[in-house]
């Protein structure tokens, strides 16, 4: 499962999806040579970059320079940062700018930013002219190991998270690991939750490796690139098997049913909860709920909580600032989960560390009483 390694430490993970196949390049300095990597994969010569007010001032000029040096005509849109930008207003601004720039199907939209920008720009690229080409330049750890890979795009609505969107695979992912040094510790930790998720899904040895090596991943160096490459490869393997989430891909949602409900319940207010933190709490809840159903040992949930708490992530609903609305409100968000089938809940549960599985038809009443008890 290891991604090929070059002498510079750069990694390449290929996502073999037939006519939608693409490469993920992982390593330092990729933004500075983005133009060269993109020109090798694109017929069009126009690009529309979408970024946000945090990332734009840091990397937009460097990206523009590289694109212009390689002969691209580039325009950009800088949006406010944060989950609230993944909205109808954000989508309207993005699609309007792409159309104003006359981006054709062979041209590309480039997402320069974290998961919010990637999901929004990808959705816009997927619907403008029924699909223009799309390049991800993820600048958060979370986006590098998860949201930039696999083609899920979308925006939030008042009914819940990511409820409008399309599957639209990128043509290239450039994960420039040098930019991770500019992340706040909180943002880095939030991305780490998604790295730990791959171990908890089906790679117990990776979770064990993280328990031993997490400090090196946080400090940078070869372990960080290794953890990102393993994560991208793990995600690519699942996506290639089940691109449109008709089965196995749902495993990538470990922790997300609870996590998304918590994000909705906290009004997508990043001062209270960011996505990766919701996923961290959600993964612990998934392990605890599995133990309550006698599917797993309570020791596994404690081990997961201990590791996530050790890196500084929240692991309990009571860790969320400002309290939560009644459990019934959480249940309403859970009822909008995309995995619901014929009105019945599907949860990702586990038989132990690295033994997650898709559980259909989970009784709503059991989930309700569990969440009441965990508050
Ligand atoms: O790629 C997937 O499939 C995932 O579920 C990965 C998740 O970590 C990611 O947050 C995804 O965007 C959530 O998807 P959703 O279908 O639950 O909205």
Automatic annotation (TrEMBL):
GO cellular component, one term: cytoplasm
Enzyme class, first EC level, given as a word: lyase
Gene3D superfamilies named among the record's database cross-references: 3.40.50.1970, Dehydroquinate synthase-like - alpha domain
Known EC number: 4.2.3.4
Compartments, as annotated in UniProt: Cytoplasm
Binding site for Zn(2+): 194, 256, 275
InterPro entries xrefs: Dehydroquinate_synthase, DHQ_synth_AroB, DHQ_synth_fam, DHQS/DOIS_N, DHQS_C
Comment on bound cofactor: Binds 1 divalent metal cation per subunit. Can use either Co(2+) or Zn(2+).
Entry cofactors: Co(2+); Zn(2+); NAD(+)
Transmembrane segments: none
Keywords in alphabetical order: Amino-acid biosynthesis, Aromatic amino acid biosynthesis, Cobalt, Cytoplasm, Lyase, Metal-binding, NAD, Nucleotide-binding, Zinc
Top-level lineage group: Bacteria
Stored PANTHER family: 3-DEHYDROQUINATE SYNTHASE, 3-DEHYDROQUINATE SYNTHASE, CHLOROPLASTIC
HAMAP family per the UniProt record, alphabetical: DHQ_synthase (MF_00110)
Function recorded in the entry: Catalyzes the conversion of 3-deoxy-D-arabino-heptulosonate 7-phosphate (DAHP) to dehydroquinate (DHQ).
NCBIfam families in UniProt: aroB (TIGR01357)
Protein name (Swiss-Prot/TrEMBL): 3-dehydroquinate synthase
Organism annotation: Pseudorhizobium pelagicum
Gene name linked to the record: aroB
């Amino acid at each position: 499962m290891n991604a090929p390694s070059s002498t510079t430490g750069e990694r390449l993970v290929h996502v073999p999806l037939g006519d939608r196949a693409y490469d993920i390049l992982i390593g330092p300095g990729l933004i500075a040579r983005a133009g060269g990597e993109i020109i090798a994969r694109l017929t069009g010569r126009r690009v529309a970059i979408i970024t946000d007010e945090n990332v734009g001032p840091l990397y937009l000029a460097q990206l523009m320079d590289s694109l212009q040096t390689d002969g691209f005509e580039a325009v950009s849109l800088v949006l406010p940062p944060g989950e609230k930008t993944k909205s109808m207003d954000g989508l309207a601004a993005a699609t309007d700018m792409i159309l104003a720039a006359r981006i054709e199907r062979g041209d590309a939209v480039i997402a320069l930013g974290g998961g919010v920008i990637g999901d929004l720009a990808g959705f816009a690229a997927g619907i403008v002219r029924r699909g223009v080409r799309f390049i991800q330049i993820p600048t958060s750890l979370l986006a590098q190991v998860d949201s930039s890979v696999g083609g899920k795009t979308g925006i939030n609505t008042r009914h819940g998270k990511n409820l409008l969107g399309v599957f639209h695979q990128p043509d290239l992912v450039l994960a420039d690991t040098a930019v991770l040094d500019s992340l706040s510790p909180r943002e880095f930790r939030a991305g780490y939750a998604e790295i730990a998720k791959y171990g908890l899904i089906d790679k117990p040895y990776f979770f064990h490796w993280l328990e031993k090596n997490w400090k090196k991943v946080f400090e940078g160096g070869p372990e960080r690139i290794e953890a990102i490459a393993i994560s991208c490869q793990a995600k690519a393997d699942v996506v290639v098997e089940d691109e449109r989430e008709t089965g196995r891909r749902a495993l990538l949602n470990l922790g997300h049913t609870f996590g998304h409900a918590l994000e909705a319940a906290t009004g997508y207010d990043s001062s209270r909860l960011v996505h990766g933190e919701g996923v961290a709490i959600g993964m612990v809840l998934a392990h605890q709920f599995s133990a309550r159903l006698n599917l797993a040992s309570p020791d596994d949930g404690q081990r997961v909580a201990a590791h996530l708490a050790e890196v500084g992530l929240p692991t309990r609903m009571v860790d969320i600032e400002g309290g939560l609305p009644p459990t019934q409100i959480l249940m309403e968000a859970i009822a909008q989960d995309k995995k619901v089938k014929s009105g019945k809940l599907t949860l990702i549960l586990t038989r132990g560390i690295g033994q997650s599985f898709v559980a259909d038809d989970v009784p709503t009443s059991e989930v309700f009483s569990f969440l009441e008890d965990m508050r």
